[in-house]
Amino acid sequence: MTNVIFWGKYGVTSGRVGNDHLHIYRSACVRSIKRMRKRSLIPVALLVVFGAIQLVPVSRTNPAVVTPMKWDSEETKALADRACMDCHSNQTVWPWYSYVAPVSWWIANHVNEGRDKLNFDDLTAVRREGRRKFGNVANAQGEAGEGNEAGESTGTAQGGGARAAKIADEIKEHMQHGQMPMESYLPMHPTARLTEEEKIKLIEGLSKSVAATLGQ
Ligand code: HEC
Questions:
Q1: Which of 63, 68, 81, 84 registers the highest number of CB atoms within 10 A of its CB?
Q2: How many structural domains compose the chain?
């Protein structure tokens, strides 16, 4: 028989217990200590994983501007800068959290996908998706081989005009349906939230600016 102190559900008590009881009590203690050790390893493991994923390379580039935009007005440029250019230009302002994985993967993915679909700094880029949608355009630096595919317009000013019109249509459609700017962009970029009046101005302004840039 031993005198022990219990830290139990009902506070601290003491009493005399037999060896059996003591054994059970001891092993319960050991189990709970082991459990605690295991639990305290979870944050450490998470930290290690967090550190490791930072090493995954992320494509956070700002390539050279190929087709400098011929803005129809300073206002259009300012509106586009506020709402579109981080994802649809080569002049992305990469915020600090775009350097922290896994958020960085998500942001880089949006920017790269956004640029791929529509890049105001590279309007003549002949991309698979883009070309199908916007049509080919006179483009000396078209991707090797692609411009020569049968049935493709090898490009004239007319190609540029048709392309500009298609781009303008897409912009109008996406903005009118509230798809652009992307909803997930807004909480961290509240100035990208445009009023109805600003949206109309931007749709018109972008249409003119894209046409001017593509030589129409
Ligand atoms: C946070 C990044 C982001 C912002 C900001 C953003 N876009 Fe986009 N945009 C994307 C992504 C990603 C896609 C491709 C996926 C999709 O269509 O939803 C896209 C697609 C588009 C398309 C469709 C192109 C195609 O061929 O399918 C248009 C047009 C467009 N954006 C216009 C705009 C305009 C105009 C603005 C500003 C008012 C804007 N976007 C702001 C990321 C963005």
A1: 84
A2: 2
